[in-house]
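Quick one:
INPUT:
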């Protein structure tokens, strides 16, 4: 079991930047792939970015590619999401998650068994 806590959300204007962090506890963190998902008002939860256990391979949703960067520090048991050139469509609660099975894909919420409580990101026009 991995416990996850997100932080770093806030209010920012279009074109601004935020950096989200996810702090983990548990002995298995370094061996798990991690990901960020988000859920906007009235929308379904969607994939944002993922990073493998080594931190050397990353994946991004097309909507954030080139603007967001995901990374992890296994020694500190943290994962980060640097968000640049933010848009109003990025407004959502952002969740970090740990992948606990590999039955589908890194974009499927069903492959992630551990979730944080979420942190709110609001981008104004």
């Amino acid at each position: 079991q991995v416990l996850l806590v997100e932080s770093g959300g806030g209010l920012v204007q279009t074109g601004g930047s935020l950096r989200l962090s996810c702090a983990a506890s548990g002995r298995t963190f370094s061996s798990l792939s991690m990901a960020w998902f988000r859920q906007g008002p009235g929308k379904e939860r969607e994939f944002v970015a993922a990073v493998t256990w080594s931190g050397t391979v990353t994946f991004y949703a097309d909507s954030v590619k080139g603007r967001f960067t995901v990374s992890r520090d296994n020694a500190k048991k943290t994962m980060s999401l640097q968000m640049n050139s933010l848009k109003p469509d990025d407004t959502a609660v952002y969740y970090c998650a740990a992948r606990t099975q590999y039955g589908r894909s890194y974009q499927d919420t069903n492959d992630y068994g551990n979730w944080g409580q979420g942190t709110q990101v609001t981008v104004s026009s």
